[in-house]
Amino acid sequence: MDYNYSYFALLPNQPTESPSADELAKLARLPRRKPKEPDGFCNRKLGYGVILVVVVSITWVSATQFTRATLTSTGHFFAPFFLIWFNTSWMILCYPMYYAVNWINCKCQNRDYRPSINAAWKIFGAESFSGWTAAFRCGCFAIIWAATNYMYSYALSILAASDVSALFSSNTAFVFFFSWTILHERFEGTKLFASIFSLAGIIIMSYVDGFLWDNPALSGILLAVGSAVGSAMYKVLFKRLIGDANYGQVSLLLTGLGIFNLILFWPITLTLQLTGVEKWNFSTIPWMYVGGSAALGFLFNALVNYGIALTHPLFITLGVALGLPLNAVVDHFFNKVEFRAIEITGFVLITIGFFMTLLPINWTQSVRKRLPCKRLRKDPDEEALKNHYVHTPRDLLRMSMAAAKKKQQT
What we know:
Layout (H helix, E strand, L loop, with lengths): L20 H9 L11 H32 L7 H10 L4 H15 L5 H7 L10 H26 L4 H8 L2 H11 L7 H18 L9 H26 L5 H18 L1 H9 L12 H20 L6 H21 L7 H16 L6 H7 L4 H4 L4 H5 L6 H17 L1
Helix pairs in contact: 2-13, 2-14, 3-6, 3-11, 3-13, 4-11, 5-11, 6-10, 6-11, 7-10, 7-14, 8-9, 8-10, 9-15
C-alpha cells in the first residue's frame, strides 16, 4: 500500500506554438477578461472538495489501520514485504482503468481517444517508445516505492498508527531539503521553519522511551522517518526525471511499476519466506485483512491521483491532514492507546510543520499588504524575490566563488 500522495498531483502542461510579435502586440491591447464559469460551478466544485476531504481521510485511516491489524492481530502471519508486493501488484489496474474511462468519455463526446493514449506513452520516450527508458524509470520508482512502503508497514507493527502517520507527515520537510539541493529550487524561510518544527517533533517522540538502540520503539521511529525520507526522494526524483505529467502518463507509470514489482520482486518475497525472515504460508494468510488493506490502499491512490480532476488539490492535502487526528482517535478508543504529554507535544510540532509547508510562496507579501501601517506594508526583499532562482545552493556556491575571486584580485 502506498502513502506517497503528493507527487501525483501534477497538472499537464499542453504544448503551444509561440505567437509572433504582431500577435503579441494585439493580445497586449485586448482587455483581459476572466472566463465566465457555468452557473453553480463553484458550488459544485466545493461540494466535490468537501466529499473528497472526508473520503480521503477515512480511506487513509482505514488503510493504515488495516495494515497494522494485518501484521499484529494474527500471530501466524508477519510478512511486511509480501504485503507490499501484493498491494503494489494492484497498481497494474491503473492504466486499464484510465484507458476504459478515457474511451467511454471520448465516445460520449464524439472525439478520437487515440491522441490522449499516444500522449501517455511519451513518458517512456519523447519521440518513440524506448524499452530501456521504460525499464529504468519503472525500476527506479519501484525500488523506492517498495523500500518506502516496507519501512512504513514494518513501523506499523511496532508503533501505533497515529505515531507512524505523524512521523510520516514529516516527509514535507525532507521534500523541501531535497528540492533545494537536487532541484535547485528557491530557498524559502517558511519551509525552513517547518522543517525545524518537524525535526523537533521527531526528536521529542524519539525521546519518549529514551535513545536506546535495543528499544523497539526507537527502531519503529527510525523506520517511520526512513519511509518519510523515501517518500520525499520519490517525489523529487519524479519531478527530476519526468517533470509535469498528465493523468494518462501517471497511470501508465503506475501500471509499469506494478508489472515490474509483480515479475521481479517475487523471488525476494519467496526468499524471505524460505529463510524464516517473514512468517506466512498460503493456507494461513488472513486474506480478509490482506485483501482489505490492498483494496483500501488502491482506492486511496485512485482518489489522490484522479480526485484533482474534480476539485482543487488543496482538498486532497486537507484530507490527508484530517487523517492525523482521526488515527489518534481510532487508536485511543478502539486500540486502547494512551498518549503521554510528551508524545502529544511531538505530534503537535510535526503537524504544525506539515501545515506550514502548505503555505504559498508569497504568503508574507499577502499578509503585509493588509497591515494598517504603511511602513510595514513595504517589502524589503521585493527585488530579491523577483529572481526565482536566488538563494539556491548553485547560486550560493557561484556567489561565494565570485567573492573569493574578487578578494584574491584585490
